[in-house]
Design brief:
Elements (H helix, E strand, L loop, with lengths): L4 H15 L5 E7 L7 H20 L5 H6 L11 H27 L2 H7 L2 H18 L10 E7 L4 E6 L1 H4 L7 H13 L3 H19 L16 E2 L7
Parallel strand pairs: 1-2, 1-4
Antiparallel strand pairs: 2-3
Helix pairs in contact: 1-9, 2-4, 8-9
Length: 235
């Protein structure tokens, strides 16, 4: 679901309001996807090429059957044993190659590739992308070390909260689980902006309770608007 200008305005307003009651800084980033998972088709195709033909042999399939099915000649005397073995091996290797190609093409279909990518790999890629955004946008360099990143990825239906050491010192990391849950709920319902706004409001309450404003001097160190990233491989 594409984010509208109204969605961006709602998120920016929610961040600005939340930050009036805390010395913390909230920064929001949305990615369409964090990786194209090019290794997934290769892994599945390799596994299929190794397992399926071998499984067929265990079930009684003989490579020479392909020759007979397609009208080939078969040897009828003992002297042709070596040729028969070579023919069987050649057919087996060709079968493996065919299985590899078919599986690779099928798993390369984006929805299939995402579905067959292990959840642990998706989690690792989302975490890596979140950390890159946290450091790349200088959330670790706020005056009181109180930057909080709310990061979500549409394709993976995953979200991360990355808080600087000034926040981790005074909050239980478990309090951010509900913030993550609110973002993920928004992604699943295709209400991304609603998820971010709810997560921002809860983050604001958490920050206000633990890192209230330090006085009249409470500068806004980071932009309030949501940052939308390009997809993998796009500038």
């Amino acid at each position: 679901m594409a984010m509208t200008e109204t969605d961006h305005d709602r998120i920016a307003a929610a961040v600005a309001k939340a930050e009036t009651k805390t010395a913390g800084e909230i920064y929001c980033v949305l990615a369409p996807a964090v990786s194209d998972y090019r290794e997934t088709p290769l892994a599945w195709a390799t596994a299929a090429a190794l397992i399926l033909p071998a499984g067929a042999l265990l079930l009684g399939f003989e490579p020479q059957m392909l020759t007979r099915w397609f009208g080939g000649w078969t040897a009828a005397h003992t002297a042709a044993t070596d040729a028969t073995i070579l023919s069987a091996l050649t057919i087996y290797v060709a079968l493996q190659a065919a299985v590899f190609i078919v599986a690779a093409v099928f798993v390369s279909i984006p929805p299939v590739r995402r579905a067959l990518t292990p959840a642990s790999l998706k989690a690792e890629r989302v975490h890596r992308a979140a950390m890159e955004q946290f450091l790349g946008h200088g959330l670790h360099a706020t005056r009181e070390r109180t930057g909080v990143l709310l990061f979500a990825s549409l394709a993976e239906h995953r979200a991360e909260v990355v808080a600087d050491e000034g926040i981790y010192k005074v909050t239980d990391p478990a309090v951010w689980d509900e913030v993550v849950a609110l973002m993920i709920d928004g992604l699943k319902r295709r209400k991304t902006a609603d998820g971010f706004v709810a997560a921002i409001e809860l983050s604001g309450r958490i920050l206000a309770a633990h890192v209230p404003p330090t006085g009249d001097d409470n500068p806004n160190e980071l932009p309030d608007r949501l940052v939308e990233l390009p997809g993998p491989g796009k500038a």
